[in-house]
Write a structure and sequence with these properties.
By secondary structure, this protein is mainly α. The protein is about 70% helix and about 0% strand. The chain is built from 12 helices and 2 strands, in the order H-E-E-H-H-H-H-H-H-H-H-H-H-H.
Length: about 325
């Protein structure tokens, strides 16, 4: 009796499953997928920690010591005494007030004039637009110290072109009534071109469909600018306001150090220049560090309020 070979079932090789290894591989893949965005941020976070937060911690530590910056002099722990001295110094309150005046006086250069110039020149096209943008942006490319030297020559009390035009012999830089305004005007002249380009870029990003639809409904040019273009420019204007509030004191530092050194009679000393003066003129490192910490906390609170406001008053084109 014969049995057909073709009818016999062929045995198949069964591989034993590896449940543990499969679970481990899927867990690693899930962790890598979750960690991927943070890995991209790692270099930026590392630089931020090294160049910003580590010096900030060191400044907070230094603010509790008395030290004259000499390596041979030991640092003496004084606790919160530097902060107490800071609150008792009248120069601190005066410098904060000058900083507020500086910020308010620079807002027309960073908000009002750029908006007016951008609206007035939006009809300029082609090579004329390139030329106009190059001319108005040029002051921003000039080094602040070089710009200060040119303005010092223009405002010279005996041979400056400003006094020749006005028929005056006033020393604009060394007069307590005008020195602060000289710093403000030079800083505004320096920053105006950058602000105009930012506003122009914001206007270019506004969808033209809105204005075309408003024109079909009979809206005038003024109505379109007032109710469509300006509201959609609000994120750009808030950004420029934030920059002006937070960075004005820093922008004026090279001009003050070149032209007035904080004088005359401290009429140009703002809070940013004052903390530098405490550290590198008076050699009181602890007091300077305490002023820096107070400045950081104060401007951080102002920035937080401005960001909170910007989320509620700005309009976005979705």
């Amino acid at each position: 009796m014969f049995v057909s070979v073709l009818d016999r079932p062929v045995p198949t090789k069964v591989t034993a499953p590896e449940p543990t290894r499969t679970i481990r591989d899927s867990s690693i893949a899930r962790v890598l997928r979750v960690a991927q965005p943070y890995l991209y941020l790692t270099p930026a976070i590392a630089l931020l920690v090294v160049w910003t937060y580590r010096p900030l911690v060191q400044a907070a530590q230094l603010s509790t010591y008395s030290w004259n910056l000499l390596p041979t002099t030991p640092m003496e722990a004084v606790g919160a005494d530097n902060y107490r001295r800071l609150l008792e110094l009248p120069a601190v309150g005066d410098s904060i007030w000058r900083t507020v005046v500086l910020i308010l006086a620079l807002l027309p250069f960073s908000i009002v004039l750029p908006v007016v110039i951008s609206f007035a020149t939006r009809g300029v096209h082609g090579r004329a637009r390139v030329m106009y943008q190059s001319i108005i942006f040029a002051p921003f490319l000039i080094a602040p110290v070089a710009g200060a030297a040119v303005w010092q020559w223009l405002l010279d009390p005996s041979a400056g072109i400003v006094n020749r035009i006005l028929g005056s012999d006033r020393n604009w830089i060394q007069d307590t009534a005008t020195a602060q305004w000289v710093i403000i005007i030079i800083t505004g002249w320096h920053f105006l071109g950058f602000a105009v380009l930012v506003v122009s870029a914001g206007m270019a990003g506004v969808n033209s469909d809105y204005s075309e639809a408003a024109q079909m409904d009979g809206a005038s040019r003024w109505q379109i600018d007032r109710w469509i273009t300006l509201p959609l420019l609000s994120p750009t204007l808030v950004f420029l306001t934030l920059m002006t509030v937070l960075l004005s004191a820093q922008w004026t530092f090279p001009l003050i150090d070149t032209l007035t050194q904080g004088g005359p009679s401290q009429s140009t000393t703002n809070i940013y220049y004052l903390l530098w003066d405490y550290g590198f003129h008076s050699f009181d490192a602890g007091l300077s560090a305490a002023a820096g910490i107070v400045l950081f906390v104060g401007f951080g609170a102002v920035a937080g309020v401005l960001v909170w406001l910007s989320e509620r008053i700005t309009f976005h084109d979705n």
